[in-house]
Design goal:
Layout (H helix, E strand, L loop, with lengths): L9 H8 L24 E4 L5 E4 L6 E3 L2 H10 L5 E5 L9 H8 L3 E3 L5 H5 L5 E4 L18 H6 L3 E4 L1 H4 L12 H14 L2 H22 L9 E6 L8 E3 L4 H8 L3 E2 L8 E3 L2 H7 L3 E5 L6 H17 L7 H4 L3 E2 L3 H5 L4 H13 L6
Parallel strand pairs: 3-4, 3-6, 4-5, 6-7, 8-10, 8-12, 12-13
Antiparallel strand pairs: 1-2, 9-11
Helix pairs in contact: 7-8, 8-14, 9-14
C-alpha cells in the first residue's frame, strides 16, 4: 500500500527550511508559448531569481511529492512523469486522476534518495518544498547540489508558491503565486492551453466569492482557526500569513486568527488559541482515501476539541461552528484552493455566495 503522506507533518518543517527563498513570484518568458521545438524558449526562475531555460519540452519528469504530481496530471502531462516522492495514497486524489497517479513509479515514500533521483534518467525535477541558497539543492536530507543535477542532465525547478512562501515580502492575500506556478508548468511541459483553462476556472470561483463578500468590513468578518488535527494535538500548528491557507481564508471573507504570524507555519499553544477565541474552526484532516475514513477522522477531530478542557469553552466549539474541509486542499498549493475558498465562504457567509 502506498504512503498516504502528502508531506504530512513535514510540510511545516519543509516550509521552515525554505529560509533561503526570497520574495517574488513572477515567471519570465512568454506564458503563451510552450517549450517545444517550434516554440520560443521558456525561462522560469527560482526563489532567488536564478534562471532555468527550456528549449524543448521535458520527456521524463520526477516530482518531489503528490502536489506537483497532481498539477502535472491536471495539465495532461502525466505521460511524462517518470517517478515521484511522497506519493499520494490510493483514493486521495480526485477519481479522474487517482488511477493515473497510482501508476507512477514511487522513487521514495518520503524524500527521494539522492542516488535514486540522480540515476532516474529524468531531465526535469520539480521540487515542491525546497531549501535554497546555502542549504544545497533542495528538500530534506542529502539533496543533490546544482552541479550534481547538471552532471546528471536534470533541470531543477520549484513550485514557487510553496518553496518561496516562508520568505515572501508580505502576507499572501490571493492565489496569484499558485496561478503563476500552473502557468509556468504549462509552458514548460507544452500544456499552456490547459494551464490557461485551469487558471480561468480558479479565477471564476474566486471572483464570484470576491464579488459576494469582498466588500465586507474587516470587523464584520468572522475569525477563523485552521486546526491541523494530524499535526498533533499536544501543541497546535498555526497557519501563518505566508501560507497559501491564509490567502484561502482571507479570500473567503474570514480573518485568520494567526494572521499576525509571519512565515508559513508556527507551533503555538492552546492558550494562544483560547485567547483568540475563533468564530469558526476548520477541522483540517488529511485525506484517508475514502469517504468513511475521512468522516471518522473529522468526527475524531471534533470530539477532541469538545472534550479537551482547554478548547471546550471556545465560541466555535460551543456553537458547533466547524468546517469539515481537508488539509491538503487548503494548505497545499493547487487548483483545489479556489474551490475551498468557495466552500468556506458559503459556510461562514450563508446566503451570500452561490
Amino acid at each position: 500500500m502506498r504512503s498516504r503522506v502528502w508531506c504530512g507533518t513535514a510540510v511545516a518543517l519543509l516550509g521552515l527550511l525554505a529560509a533561503g527563498c526570497g520574495g517574488g513570484t513572477d515567471e519570465e518568458g512568454d506564458e503563451g508559448s510552450d517549450a517545444s521545438a517550434g516554440g520560443a524558449p521558456v525561462t522560469v526562475t527560482d526563489c532567488m531569481g536564478a534562471k532555468t531555460t527550456f528549449d524543448t519540452t521535458p520527456r521524463r519528469i520526477v516530482t518531489s511529492n503528490a502536489s506537483s504530481l497532481e498539477l502535472l496530471l491536471r495539465l495532461g502531462a502525466g505521460d511524462k512523469v517518470a517517478g515521484t516522492g511522497f506519493p499520494p495514497g490510493e483514493g486521495t486524489l480526485p477519481a479522474g486522476l487517482d488511477a493515473m497517479a497510482q501508476k507512477v513509479p514511487v522513487l521514495g515514500e518520503t524524500v527521494i534518495p539522492k542516488e535514486k533521483l540522480l540515476g532516474s534518467g529524468a531531465d526535469l525535477y520539480i521540487d515542491t518544498f525546497a531549501a535554497m541558497g546555502n542549504m544545497g539543492g533542495g528538500g530534506m536530507g542529502d539533496a543533490p547540489t546544482a552541479e550534481e543535477f547538471e552532471a546528471a542532465g536534470i533541470k531543477h525547478v520549484f513550485l514557487k508558491s510553496t518553496a518561496c512562501a516562508a520568505q515572501s515580502k508580505s502576507p499572501l492575500k490571493d492565489l496569484t503565486a499558485v496561478e503563476e506556478d500552473i502557468t509556468a508548468l504549462g509552458a514548460v511541459t507544452g500544456t499552456s492551453a490547459k494551464a490557461k483553462e485551469l487558471v480561468a476556472g480558479m479565477r471564476e470561483k474566486v471572483d464570484g466569492v470576491r464579488k459576494a463578500v469582498g466588500g465586507t468590513a474587516e470587523a464584520a468578518r468572522p475569525t477563523y482557526f485552521f486546526f491541523d488535527f494530524d499535526a498533533g494535538t499536544k501543541q497546535p500548528m498555526a497557519v501563518c500569513n505566508r501560507q497559501v491557507a491564509h490567502a484561502v481564508i482571507t479570500l473567503a471573507g474570514a480573518r485568520n486568527v494567526f494572521a499576525d504570524c509571519d512565515g508559513d507555519f508556527k507551533q503555538v499553544s492552546w492558550e494562544d488559541v483560547v485567547a483568540r477565541n475563533p468564530d469558526w474552526i476548520q477541522l483540517g484532516v488529511r485525506n484517508r482515501g475514502s469517504g468513511d475514513a475521512n468522516a471518522k477522522a473529522f468526527d475524531e477531530a471534533r470530539k477532541w476539541l469538545e472534550g479537551n478542557p482547554a478548547t471546550g469553552g471556545l465560541k466555535a466549539v460551543k456553537e458547533g461552528r466547524f468546517l469539515r474541509i481537508g488539509s491538503e486542499r487548503t494548505t497545499i498549493a493547487g487548483v483545489e484552493n479556489a474551490a475551498v475558498v468557495q466552500e468556506i465562504a458559503r459556510t461562514i457567509h450563508p446566503g451570500k455566495v452561490k
